[in-house]
Amino acid sequence: MVAVHRRRVGTDMIETTGLSKRYTVYRKEAGFAGSLRAFFHRQHYDVDAVSDLTIRIGAGEIVGFLGPNGAGKTTTLKMLSGLLHPSSGSVSVAGHTPKERNREFLRSIALVMGQKMQLHWDIPATDSFLVLKTIYDIPDSDYRARLDELVTMLDLGDLVNRPIRRLSLGERMKCELAAALLHRPRILFLDEPTIGLDVTAQAAIRNFIIDYNRRYGATVLITSHYMADVTALARRVLVIDLGRLVFDGDLQALIERHSPDKILRVQFAEEVAPERLARFGTLRQIDGLVAEIAVPRAIVARQAADILASLPVADIAIEEPAVEDVIRTVFRKTGAVGKPT
Amino acid sequence: MTRRRFDPLRPLRLARALVAHSFSEYAAYRMEMVFWVVGGTLPLFMMFLWIELAEQRATGSFSAADFAAYFLLVFLVRHMTPFVPVPELERAIRHGELSAQLLRPLDPYWPMSASQLMDIAHRLPITVPVVIVGMIWSGAWQVIAFEDWPLLVLAVFGAILLHYNLLYCAGLAAFWMERVRGFEGLMWNGYFVLGGGLAPIALFPDLVQQIIVWSPFRYMISFPIEIAIGRVAPADMWFGFALLTFWVAFSIGLMRLLWHRGLRRYAAYGS
Amino acid sequence: MRVLRLLRSFWTNALQVELEFRADLLVNLINAPLMFGAGLAVLAAVFSETSSVGGWSFDEAVAVLGVFLIVDGFVGTILSPNLGRLPEYIRLGNLDYMLLMPVGSHFQVSLRNLNLWEVPNLLLGTALIGYSMLALGRVDPATIALFLLMLAAGLTTAFALWSIIYTSAFWFVRVSNLEVMFRTLVDVGRFPVSALPPWLRLLLTAVLPVAFITNVPAEAVAGRLDWTTGWLALLIAAIALAVSHLFWRRAIASYTSASS
Description:
heterotrimer; A: 6-stranded mixed β-sheet; disordered N terminus; B: mainly alpha
C-alpha cells in the first residue's frame, strides 16, 4: 500500500452541500404491444440519481469513489465538472460554481472518462495535443516541457505519433491521460480510467496518478470497479449507493466498521477435523491442511495463541478481509434499507 | 455432431422478431417522424413549380395534370426507397460493432433489411393519403395507367431492391475506405437529380437522356413512374425491364462480392 | 487574436484528419461535376418548356444555380462536418469533452472541422456565377461587392438554420432526417422562388428564409436586388444568428449528457 499524503491546507478544493440530481425517464414494456403503447402514451417517472450528497475534499487528496453500477458516481462527477446542473444543493470546486463553466474553472480541472475518448480516432495523439495547446493557451516552451514529461511519466515513447486506432486500449488510455493533463489541472476527475485494461496497464496508470498527485499536489477523485485501484491510490473513500453517501472516511475505518472480524489463516502440519476449529471462531473455509477462520478483532491475538498451543500448526497469519468482501457487505446492508425507485 | 435440420419456418420466425424489434426502435423516436415528413416533400415543391410553369404556357409534352401525377408518385417512391445503410455500415465497420453482429448466426444484411422495410411501412400511412388526396384534388388520377398495375408493382419492387443494394455496396466500401459518406451525396445527385426527382427525364436534353436510360439511376425512381403514367412504349418496356433486371442482379452480385472480400479484410485487419 | 489562432489550430488539425481520407477526394471529384451537370440538365429541362421561369431568363437562373452550388459546398465544407456531427458528439461523449474546454461551445461545435474535399462544389458554383455575370454583362466591382455581401448574409442564415435544426438533436436522438429536411429546402432554392405559387413563395421567404439564402445573392448578380430586400437579408442573417446562439445556450443548459 502506498502512503498518500493528505494535505489539508487552506480551503477545501471540492465542497458540496445537499447535492441532488433527479432525472425523468420513461418506461416501456418489452415487446410489440409495449412499443405501441409507449408510442401513444409514455409513462414518466423520476429517478433520484444523486440525493443529498455533502462532501468536502481538501487540496492534494486522492479520494476513491465507490459504488455499484448506477449508484450515481458518474452523475456526481459530471455535476462536479459542470457538465450536469444539479437539481438542488450547492457545489463549489476550486472556489468556482461548476455549472457556470467559467474559463478559470475549466482550466483548473480535467475529466477523464474510461468509456469515452476525446482524441481523434484517425490521427496521432500529438496532432490532437496541438489543438489542446491552443485551446488552453499553453506557451510553446511549457508545452514542450510538459509533453516530454508526460511522455516519460507514462512511458509513451513513440506511441504519440501513431494514429489512435492503431493503439491498444491501454496505450489509448495513456494518451487520453496525457491529453487531459497537458494544461496541468489542479483537480482531476477520473471515471473508470482503468476499465477493460489488463493488470499491467492498470498498474501503470495507477502509478502515474500517484506520481502526478505527488508532483503537483493535484486533487484526484477516482471511481473504479477495480478494488485494487482504490486500495493502491486512495486512503480515503466515499461509498455511494442508490445516490446516497453511505460512508466517507478512511479505507481502514471502513474495513473495521463493516468487518468486525479478522481472518486467521492457519497451515496445519497434519489433518485437523473441522469440529476442533469451531471454538476459535467462524470457519470460513478449509482446504486440506489450510484453514481460514474469522475471529472478532478484539480477541484475535488470544485465539491465535490458543491455536498455536493446542493444534499442530505449521504456519499462522492474521489478515484483513479482502476489500471486495467488505464493500459487498456494505452494499448488501444499504441495499436492504434502500427504497426501490 | 448432428447437422441442423432445415427448418422452413426459421426465416418466418426471424422476420417476425426482426420486424418487431425495428418497430420498437422506430416507436422510440416518434418525434422524428415530423422531420422526415417535411424532409421528403421536395417532390411536392417541384410539383407546384412545374404546375405553375405548365399553366404559363399553352403547349408542351407534359400537362399540369401530368406533372401533378408524376411528382406525387416521385414523392411516394422516394419514401419507399430507403437510405440508411451507408452511415450505419460505416459505423459498424469502422468502430468494430460489426464484430458483435458477426457472432450471430445471421447475416447482418437481414436485420438491416428488416429495419428498412419497417422504415418504408411506417411511412405509408402518411404518404399514401397525401398521394390520394393530391391525385383527386389535381385531377391527376385521370392520367394514371391503372391497367398496367402488375408491371408497376414489379418495377417498384425492382427499384427498392436496386436502390437498397447499391447503398449497401456504398456502405460496404467502408472495409477499404475510412469514410464513405461521400457516396451518399453521389447517390443523391445520381438517383434523385438525374433519376427524375427534380424534372421528368423526358424533358432533359437528348444526350443526357440517352446516358440516363442506360444508367441505374432511371430505374430507381423514374421507371416505375413512367409506367404508372403510361409513358413507356411497349417496345421500350422490354428494354426497361431487361435493364432493371440487369442492374438489380449487378447490385446484388456486387454486394455479395464486396461483403466476402471485405470480411476477409476485416478479419485480417482486426477492429 | 484568440479566435483566429483557434481557427488556425482547428483547421490545421482538421486538414491532418482529412488527409487520412484521400478516397473522399476521389468521390468528390466525381460528385462535383455530376452535381454540376445534373443541375444544368434540370435547368435545361425547365427551360425546354419555357423561356422564362418566374420572370428569370436562363442566364439569370444560372446564377441561382451557382449560388445553390456554393451553399451546398458550404454545407459540405463547414456545416456537415461540424454541426452535422452533433448527434454523434452527444452519443459518444465528445460533447462532454468540448464543454470542459475553455472555448465557447457553440463556436467549437460549429467550426472545429473543415472538409476540404468539398471545395470543388464551391469552385464550380463560382464559375457559374462568373458565367452569369459575363452573359449578363454585369462584371463590375459594385455588383461583385454586393453579391459577396448578400452571399455572406445568406451563408450566415444557412448556418443559423442548420444550427437551430441540429441543436434540436439534444431532444431528438435520431436526426438524420433533419439533414434531409434542410437539404430539401435548399434544393428548392436552386430555382427562382418567384416561379412558385404565391403561398409557397411566402413560406420560403417569411417562414423559412430559404429565398434569402439562394435567391437574394443571385438577385444581386442579375441586378434585380432592391434596397428593401438587401437590408432585409442582412437583418434576417443577424436575427437568425442571434436566435441560433440563444437556442444553443438554452440547449446546453438543459443538456443531460448521454449516460447518467
